[in-house]
Amino acid sequence: MRKVTILTLIASFFIPTFVVANEVNVFNARHYKADGELYSKFTNMTGIKVNLINGKSGALEKRIISEGADSSADLYITADAGRCGAMDAKGTLQNGLTSAAIKAAVPKSFRTSKWVGIAKRARIIYYSPERVTGAELSGMTYEGLADPKWKGRLVIRKSSNIYNKSLVASLIKNNGKAATAAWAEGVVANMARTPTGNDRAQIMAVAAGEADIAVANTYYLALMLSGKKGPEQQAAAKKVKAFFPNQNDRGTHMNVSCAALVKGAPNKANAIKLVEFLLTPESQEHFTNNTFEFPMIDGVSPSPLVVNNLGLDFKQDMKTKLASYGKNQAAAVEVMTAAGWK
Ligand SMILES: [Fe+2]
Fold first, then answer.
1. How far is the CA of 10 from the centre of ligand 1 (A)?
2. 0.90 cut: is pTM over it?
3. Pick among 3.40.50.300, 3.30.450.20, 3.40.190.10, 1.20.58.100: CATH of 23-120+256-301
4. 222: left (phi over 0), alpha (psi -120 to 50) or beta
5. How many Å lie between the centroid of ligand 1 and the Cα of residue 182?
6. Secondary structure of residue 313 in the 3-state scheme
7. pLDDT (tens digit, 9 = 90+) per residue, 120-161?
């Protein structure tokens, strides 16, 4: 009788009294409904439950920072490498996104050991083919946006916008801070109006004749053309053309939606598995067809709306490390603010 009791005691000591849940917690700032379907597929395949915590990037970042080492977040998924880079600078991320599958899928300049690109986008120039000639655009670069020939003809959103912060950070990386400060002054002098509205509003302004050129991300034109944003935006999108800058030098400025591994992630292994899943051809096709982003991996085609209206045949900047967007973010804000960029 006593023997049994001791054995039972020993056995109970080694049997865990609770079972760790097979899950992964994703703090998600991407505002695409279709992403949810992708996470369901992952759960069906692996049995790993995805707890999706949706929110605005600022709110999610605050929560991750305040939870610190006790973070409930495993992955932070957001649009823009500048956001992932800034979170890294704040010490909220950890190493671990270095598996062979991730390294094989994502080119070096589009990842670090703490965050990786999961879908690409380019920030490009849209123009009115009625008011902008081919000769004017020939050899056009981001640097050329400061050329006085564009005086009163350019629209671009506010300096507080993360896409602009990253674009300007990339210019600082390539041309230095002093040159970029002078450039920002030229850009402000060329603005057709005080910056207002989102990327689609810039395209709308060119369509309405308020400006001749606009800076906006690639997927917005396809989104407008798809009709998902209504007939007015669809009609406006048809009135502009896309131009990919810096084709004769480093290539067009690229950015990503990124997945970052949070420090203190309670389900680190599952988080890595989920990132690997997001980089499979199946997931990549899901992204390109629903969000009109460019695939992160080779061998997957963008949406036909992107291929037919923006084209594929452009040189991407594969050299400028996207980690520089976070590193140069403060300097980018400084030069834009000094130039009076609202
Ligand atoms: Fe966006």
1. 57
2. yes
3. 3.40.190.10
4. alpha
5. 27
6. coil
7. 999 999 999 999 999 999 999 999 999 999 999 999 999 999
